[in-house]
Amino acid sequence: MKQIRGAIIRAGLDALYFSGAHRVLRPIFGGVGTIFMLHHVRPAHAGVFQPNRHLEITPDFLRATLAYIRASDIDIVTPDEVQRRLAEQDFSRRFACFTCDDGYRDNRDFALPAMQDFDAPFSVYVASDFADGGGRLWWIALERVVAKADIIEAPIDGHSVRLDTSTAVGKEMAFDRLHAWLRGLPGDQDIRREMTALCAAHGIDEDAISRELCMSWDELKPFAADPLVTIGAHSVSHGNLAKQPEAVALHELATSRARIEATLQRPAVHLAYPYGDRCAAGSREFALAQKAGFQTAVTTRPGVIFADNSEQLTALPRVSLNGNFQDARYLPVLTSGAATAMYNGFRRGAA
Q1: What number of CA atoms fall less than 13 Å from residue 242's CA on the CB side?
Q2: Do 160 and 204 have their domain in common?
Q3: pLDDT higher for 344 or 190?
C-alpha cells in the first residue's frame, strides 16, 4: 500500500538527515542544481481519505523551501536559464528551478504570492485541454468516486470485481487497485471509457473538474504576463505519450506548444511530459520533444541535475516536493542529491 511505501521513504529521509550522510554524499551526488516538481499549492484541507495528497503542498511549506534555498545562496532560475547554464556549462553557482504541472488555479492564487515574496521565478506547464475546460483529470475523478461510494464494481483485468469502499482502509485499498488498473490499460481512450462509466455510476461530474480546478485561457493571460511566470507545455490531453502512435504523440506536443503561443502570445519552448516516468517518457519521446522545438523537457524521474544532463536537455530529472513529506528538515537532504541517489540505487539516475 502507499502508506507502507511512504513510511519507507520517510524512514530513508530521516536516516539520511539524522546520520548526516546527506552532507557526506552531497559532493558526489549533489550535481549542479535541482529542478523541483510541484502540482497543487494550497492550504491543507481536512479529511482522512486524500489519496492524491502527494500532489499538493501548502503555501507555508513552499515558503519554507524558498527561504531555505535563498539562505543556502542557491540561485532560483527560469527554465531558460537552466537551458543556458547547461548549454554553456556555466556551473559557477548552484541553481534551483521551480516547476508546476497541469495549470491549477491554486498556482496563481497561492504559489504566485509565495514566489513574489522571494522574488523567485517559476514555470507552470499547461495541458491545453485543461485550459479549454474540457480535459479529464481522471485521478481526481477517481478520488471523488471512491470517496463517495460504499461499493464499487469495475471490470478489472477482464473480471467483474466488487470493491468494498465503506471504510477508510477499504477506500485506500480500492483507490490503489483502481489507479494501478487504469494506468495499466492499453491507451488513454480506455481510461476515458472506464472512468466515464465509473463517474456515471456514482454521480460524479467528471467534465466539470478541469473547469473547477484549472486556469482557463482567459485566466492564464494575465497570469503569464507576470515577469516571474514562464508558461510551458504539458501536451494537449495529458495522455501517456509512450502509448500513442508516433504521429499522435508528435501532434500532442507540437499542438500544445502552438496553442499556448497563439493564445498567450509568448514562446512556449519548455515541456513537461504527462506522467513523465519510464512508462510514459523514453528515448522516442525525448526525440519527439526536440522535433517539436522544445529547448528543455522535464520528466518525473527522480534526480538532481548534473553537468552531463546537457547532453539530453529533453530528458531532465526532477525532485518532487511531495505533499506526504512536508518537513523542512528534509530540504537539505533533497538538495544534496542523497535522497534521489538512494532511490536510484546510488546511481546518478541519468535518463
Answers
A1: 16
A2: yes
A3: 190
Residue 180: what residue type?
A: A
Q: What is the Cβ-side half-sphere exposure of residue 147, based on CA atoms within 13 angstroms?
A: 13
Beta-sheet strands, E only, within 131-287:
151-156, 159-164, 229-233, 270-272
CA 207 centroid distance within chain: 22
Same domain, 272 and 323: yes
**CA 136: distance to chain centroid?**
16
Cell of 170: 477499504
What's the pLDDT tens digit per position in 86-114? 999 999 999 999 999 999 999 999 999 99
What is the rounded distance in angstroms from the CA atom of residue 103 to the CA atom of residue 80? 19
- Say how far apart CA 175 and CA 143 lie, in whole Å: 7
Query: In angstroms, what CA-CA distances link 114 with 168, 255, 265?
Result: 34, 31, 26
170 occurs within a structural domain = yes
pTM for this predicted structure: 0.96
- H or E stretch at 120: none
Cell numbers at 110, concatenated: 497561492
- Residue 205 sits at φ, ψ, to 5 deg, of -85, 90
* Distance from C-alpha of 64 to C-alpha of 62, rounded to nearest angstrom: 5
Task: Report the candidate in 186, 190, 161 with the shortest Cα–Cα distance to residue 174.
Answer: 161
* Closest listed residue to residue 69, CA positions, set 97, 109, 29: 97
What are 60's three cell numbers?
A: 507555508
* Domain limits for position 150: 138-208
* Whether residue 129 is found in the same domain as residue 14: yes
